[in-house]
Amino acid sequence: MTNKKIIMTSRPTGLPKESNFSLQEDSQASLNQGQIRLKTLWLSLDPYMRGRMSAAKSYTAGMNEGNVMTGEIIGKVTESESKKFPEGSIVLTRSGWQSEPVVGENEVSLVDPRIDPLSLALGTIGMPGLTAYFSLTRIGKPKKGETIVVSAGSGAVGATVGQIGKHLGCKVVGIAGSDEKVKYMVDDLNFDAGVNYKKETFKEDLKSSTAEGCDIYFDNVGGPVTDAVLDRLNTFSRVIVCGQISQYNNLKNEDGPRNFHKFLRNQAKLEGFIVYRWAEEYQEGIDFLLKLKESGFLKYRETVVEGIENAPEAFLKLFSGENFGKLLIKVAE
Ligand SMILES: NC(=O)c1ccc[n+]([C@@H]2O[C@H](COP(=O)([O-])OP(=O)(O)OC[C@H]3O[C@@H](n4cnc5c(N)ncnc54)[C@H](OP(=O)(O)O)[C@@H]3O)[C@@H](O)[C@H]2O)c1
Fold first, then answer.
1. How close is the Cα of 152 to the center of ligand 1, in Å?
2. What atom in ligand 1 is closest to the CA of residue 274?
3. 278-323 residue pLDDT tens
4. At the top level of CATH, which class does the domain 127-277 belong to?
5. CB of residue 194 inside a 6 A radius of ligand 1
6. Ligand 1, atom 4: closest residue by C-alpha
7. CA–CA separation, 7 vs 44, rounded Å?
8. What is the CATH number of domain 2-123+301-330?
9. Which of 115, 195, 241, 254 has its CA 20 to 30 A from that of 81?
């Protein structure tokens, strides 16, 4: 009976490498009052983890060398010294990249039993889906007939943003890094158009797909993709800064905002956010997303890699675009 865990052994310089991680095993300690032991079923791999590996100042403290990699899991209680979470309970917690973690009862919450399959509690009906729902509706405030452009549009957050946009009666244009992802956004997710940013014709394709301009830009990536979308902004448009994945492995910070005249000229608004802003309201988002899924409107896709020992290699897929939809590690049945 051992707990496998993935440690950050060194901070990455630029793109992380597998040598920044190591697998360690612990023999299992006995539980104290109020503690539970979990068998991790699913581990979520997310772009924000790159930020936690860095020593740079952020909205929350980063990791130190020697720490277990941070992350959210779904686990089954296998041993319990807690009245709140008896053996067999299915819970969500931030115990990180570990196979049999021991956690305190105040660090876990029960997974909503309506969420099926369970992995959705880490994806479309979990943190990424809630990110899409709250930031699009609270910051973007989409109106029927408006045009939403979403980058990383086939990903966990982007696919949900686009589908909520369609549900609210907007035109949705998705941006992604392959023709296969573009086809998926249009054919399966029902977006009005998709554009491949890796093509030489990207700017022209974006222009022809947004003939009436862009009212809401949901930015997941930053960099040259975002520069191109800013040229399509309409008067009183809103730019929601959700993520900047194209910049996460940069060795130095980019020079400060260069293209703010585009905001001035269009009287546009730009707002960044961290999803935890709406933590007290998550149930509203879960109910909304469940209803949309049950009606058959909300589609999702997952990339599943088996085995916690493969988490470091899988994590890198987020930066090469090899994941297609929510990236997950299946740790146990
Ligand atoms: N603010 C918040 O609270 C919050 C919460 C959750 C997530 N986020 C952010 O939201 C974004 C999406 O997260 P997710 O979990 O849904 O990930 P995801 O979209 O499922 O996966 C990341 C995708 O980013 C794209 N990408 C990678 N490098 C890129 C580059 N250099 N230029 C353009 N695109 C690139 C790739 O897709 P392609 O194949 O299309 O290139 C990749 O598949 C991330 O930036 C994340 O940090 C923010």
1. 6
2. 3
3. 999 999 999 999 999 999 999 999 999 999 999 999 999 999 999 9
4. alpha beta
5. no
6. 242
7. 16
8. 3.90.180.10
9. 115
